[in-house]
Specification:
This is NAD(P)/FAD-dependent oxidoreductase. Belongs to the class-I pyridine nucleotide-disulfide oxidoreductase family. Keywords: FAD, Flavoprotein, NAD. Its cofactor is FAD. By secondary structure, this protein is α/β, with parallel strands linked by helices. The protein is built from 15 helices and 21 strands. The protein has 3 domains: 170 residues, FAD/NAD(P)-binding domain, CATH 3.50.50.60; 118 residues, FAD/NAD(P)-binding domain, CATH 3.50.50.60; 110 residues, Enolase-like, domain 1, CATH 3.30.390. It is 32% helix and 25% strand. The strands form 5 sheets. Strands 1, 2, 3, 4, 5, 6 and 16 form a 7-stranded mixed sheet that branches. The protein has a 5-stranded antiparallel sheet with strand order 17-18-21-20-19, with helices on both faces. A 4-stranded parallel sheet has the order 10-9-8-14. A hairpin with a 4-residue loop joins strand 12 and strand 13. 46% of the residues are buried.
């Protein structure tokens, strides 16, 4: 292998893979540097294993919500075995084979920026210096944040990695944090038979519409989870096989394991950012083409830039970055206007997300509060999803809610949220409406098939018409 490439990528997760792949498709040579498994966090310790764990419980609950289905149970060992298959038993052989087929070289080791367009990799054999003719892209991801709670680090808590890779189900689990990881893992382990306590400093899913967190809290309680809101953990101690958490209300909880799910920190502390004038341990600021301001060669893509900590958004950024790196190498005109192919415009106001909790939450774009903060003239349209014919047929006693946020000056939807069983598959229609800025008058002609849950779109339009009259 050469030591000089057109593009060097730090990090072989889905984001780094996509940056390299798009650049190679654009005619460049590329190498990826990775110290762990090729495929990254999403493939082995996040998206893939967590959804593999969640799906059996979702399928069972879906069946049990329909009259005429009798019984059914979860087999925890089989659930874990199914998860193992989806993560290839933590082997990256298949991912490495894909890199080779895509024409992307791999160097295993820890890479650091050591000069302009230069990366030094510490490998098992020593150090290897790589040089980039055109660009270096940092796609190193993020790590779970361990808050500064007395005794917590010494108690060896689980993070999302341990939670998604566990070989056995603990008898009990305390979850610190009310965000996506917290509620999803509480859903998993309650479904697998553990006694789960979830402790949130405020509410659940606070970046979403308030009703989303409220309904998820109710759903988790229905699974037997002890949900404690507006509560802080003040101290943690481990004694043998037991962990005791002291709460700010004076109560103590003793559990077999404790999971910390309080956010993510960019993995940028030891990659040589100081050499290029950036602060280690921080998110790397970029423009909409993912290039670091003031540089003509350094890019940061995915979690490490702090824009949208979601795998699908990172891959979206990666497609833009790989294409623009190739285009700039050829001196082509860059399509960096809003919604151009070389920019990640959707990061600002059209980010879709699904929380695979009980119930599911699917959202895209702005919440009502966020839209108001931009001083837009807005209308908020809420509708009971359970009263839609398709939902009533989908599950007996279906409970859920939908909301759209409408910019009344432009008459377009700028945000949508759905809560309820199986709402994830409704999200793409909302995403297209937001990204495409489809006028309300045109949406009347997007007729929802009957009887499906998508009929809620017609109800939104009818309700908006009544509110506007």
């Amino acid at each position: 292998m050469s030591d000089e490439y057109d593009l060097i990528v730090l990090g072989a997760g889905p984001v780094g893979e996509n940056v390299a792949d798009r650049a190679v498709q654009g005619g460049l040579t590329a190498v990826i540097v990775e110290s762990e498994l090729v495929g990254g966090e999403c493939s082995y310790w996040a998206c893939t294993p967590s959804k593999a764990l969640l799906r059996p419980m979702q399928a069972l609950r879906a069946a049990q919500r329909v009259r005429g289905v009798d019984g059914g149970s979860i087999a925890p060992a089989e659930v874990l075995a199914r998860r193992d298959g989806f993560v290839s038993h933590w082997s990256d052989e298949g991912q490495v084979t894909w890199l080779q087929s895509a024409g992307i070289d791999l160097v295993r080791g820890h890479g650091r920026l050591t000069a302009e367009r230069e990366v030094t990799v510490t490998t098992d054999e020593g150090e290897r210096v790589l040089r980039a003719r055109h660009a270096v892209a940092v796609a190193t991801g993020s790590d779970a944040t361990i808050p500064d709670i007395p005794g917590l680090a010494e108690a060896h808590p689980w993070t999302s990695r341990e939670a998604t890779a566990a070989e056995q189900v603990p008898e009990s689990l305390a979850v610190i944090g009310g965000g996506v990881v917290g509620v999803e893992m509480a859903t998993v382990y309650a479904g697998l038979g553990a006694a789960v306590t979830l402790i949130a400093r405020r509410g659940l899913l606070e970046r979403m519409e308030p009703f989303a967190g409220e309904q998820v809290a109710e759903g988790l309680r229905g699974l037997g989870v002890d949900v404690r809101l507006n509560t802080q953990t003040t101290a943690v101690r481990r004694e043998g096989d037991a962990v005791t958490l002291t709460l700010d209300d004076g109560h103590e909880i003793t559990t077999a394991e404790v999971l910390v799910a309080t956010g993510r920190t960019p993995r940028s502390a030891d990659i040589g950012l100081d050499v290029v004038g950036l602060r280690p341990g921080r998110s790397i600021e970029v423009d909409d083409t993912m290039r670091v301001p003031g540089s003509d060669w350094l890019y940061a893509v995915g979690d490490v830039n702090g824009r949208a900590l979601l795998t699908h958004q990172g891959k979206y950024q990666a497609r833009a970055a790989g294409d623009v790196i190739a285009a700039r190498s050829r001196g082509e005109v860059i399509a960096d206007d809003a919604w151009g192919r070389h920019v990640a415009t959707a990061d600002h106001a059209a980010v879709p997300q699904v929380v695979f909790s009980e119930p599911e939450v699917a959202s895209v774009g702005m919440t009502a509060d966020a839209a108001r903060d931009t001083r837009q003239q807005i209308a908020v349209v809420d509708y009971d999803l359970g009263s839609v014919s398709g939902a009533a047929l989908h599950a007996d006693g279906y409970q859920g809610q939908g909301r759209v946020v409408i910019d009344t000056e432009r008459d377009v939807i700028v945000g949508a949220t759905f809560v309820g069983p199986d709402v994830a598959e409704m999200l793409q229609a909302a995403t297209i409406a937001v990204v495409g800025e489809v006028p309300i008058s045109r949406l009347w002609h997007a007729v929802p098939a009957y009887p499906t849950m998508s009929e809620i779109w017609l109800r939104f339009l009818e309700q908006y018409g009544r509110q506007s009259a």
